């Protein structure tokens, strides 16, 4: 019996998600529970469970006293090696980038230690999904690896691959922090709002300037990415 109920929840969730994509736009109000019960021939509890799942997925938002409304989709990371563009496209969102800073700078301690050099090329960018700010990415790469006139609105991983240094492995840590005033201004949130901060150390097995060719892999990028917690979530599968 429980599997049948769960199946009904999943079927209704998928049907509502399709209705949202095809018939509604951001800001539209979802039909009330009674109408959905009649339209889909399910129980009120099934409707509530399906809506709760879509709220958790970031497709809907509840406003007390007003109803349930369509919101911007939430990007999801499966904790695999992927670029921002890939994560956004997987979520059905259109990725765009606004460049804040590009230039050679003294590398911060963590980046200098990872890259093995005191100077690095810094790329600071605001990343958006469907025009909504999602993250602020601060990346450091070897100064002589990419040209300053590169297309910085495109995928950094794609540029590294074309330069002969594709990212083949990365180490990443994630922590919750309060948004700084600088990041909050770019992300369109209040200072102190909880955000997810990713520290990533990326490696390549490709050819790198000024590195030992005998090394099996070389450090190619160090990045700090600050994500809006209401626009991004982590998803993982845990096996016994």
UniProtKB/TrEMBL annotation:
<dbReference type="InterPro" id="IPR000524">
    <property type="entry name" value="Tscrpt_reg_HTH_GntR"/>
</dbReference>
<keyword id="KW-0804">Transcription</keyword>
<dbReference type="GO" id="GO:0003700">
    <property type="term" value="F:DNA-binding transcription factor activity"/>
</dbReference>
<protein>
    <submittedName>
        <fullName>GntR family transcriptional regulator</fullName>
    </submittedName>
</protein>
<dbReference type="GO" id="GO:0003677">
    <property type="term" value="F:DNA binding"/>
</dbReference>
<dbReference type="Pfam" id="PF00392">
    <property type="entry name" value="GntR"/>
</dbReference>
<dbReference type="GO" id="GO:0045892">
    <property type="term" value="P:negative regulation of DNA-templated transcription"/>
</dbReference>
<keyword id="KW-0805">Transcription regulation</keyword>
<feature type="domain" description="HTH gntR-type">
    <location>
        <begin position="6"/>
        <end position="73"/>
    </location>
</feature>
<dbReference type="InterPro" id="IPR036390">
    <property type="entry name" value="WH_DNA-bd_sf"/>
</dbReference>
<keyword id="KW-0238">DNA-binding</keyword>
<dbReference type="InterPro" id="IPR050679">
    <property type="entry name" value="Bact_HTH_transcr_reg"/>
</dbReference>
<dbReference type="Pfam" id="PF07702">
    <property type="entry name" value="UTRA"/>
</dbReference>
<dbReference type="InterPro" id="IPR011663">
    <property type="entry name" value="UTRA"/>
</dbReference>
<dbReference type="InterPro" id="IPR036388">
    <property type="entry name" value="WH-like_DNA-bd_sf"/>
</dbReference>
<dbReference type="InterPro" id="IPR028978">
    <property type="entry name" value="Chorismate_lyase_/UTRA_dom_sf"/>
</dbReference>
């Amino acid at each position: 019996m429980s599997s049948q109920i769960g199946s009904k929840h999943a079927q209704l969730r998928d049907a509502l998600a399709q209705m949202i994509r095809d018939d509604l736009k951001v800001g539209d109000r979802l039909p009330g529970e009674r109408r959905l019960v009649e339209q889909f021939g399910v129980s009120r509890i099934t409707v509530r469970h399906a809506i709760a799942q879509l709220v958790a997925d970031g497709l809907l938002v509840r406003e007390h006293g007003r109803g349930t409304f369509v919101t911007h989709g939430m990007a999801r990371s499966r904790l695999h090696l992927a670029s921002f563009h890939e994560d956004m496209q997987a979520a059905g969102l259109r990725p765009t980038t606004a460049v804040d800073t590009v230039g050679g700078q003294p590398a911060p301690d963590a980046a200098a230690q990872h890259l093995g050099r005191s100077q690095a090329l810094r790329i600071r960018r605001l990343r958006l999904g469907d025009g909504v700010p999602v993250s602020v990415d601060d990346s450091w790469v070897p100064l002589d690896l990419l040209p300053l006139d590169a297309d910085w609105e495109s995928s950094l991983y794609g540029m590294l691959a074309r330069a002969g240094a594709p990212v083949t492995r990365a180490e990443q840590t994630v922590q919750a922090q309060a948004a700084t005033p600088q990041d909050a201004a770019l992300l369109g949130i209040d200072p102190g709002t909880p955000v997810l901060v990713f520290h990533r150390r990326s490696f390549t097995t490709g050819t790198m300037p000024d590195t030992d060719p005998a090394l099996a892999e070389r450090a190619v990028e160090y990045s700090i990415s600050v994500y809006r917690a209401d626009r991004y979530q982590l998803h993982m599968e845990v096996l016994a």
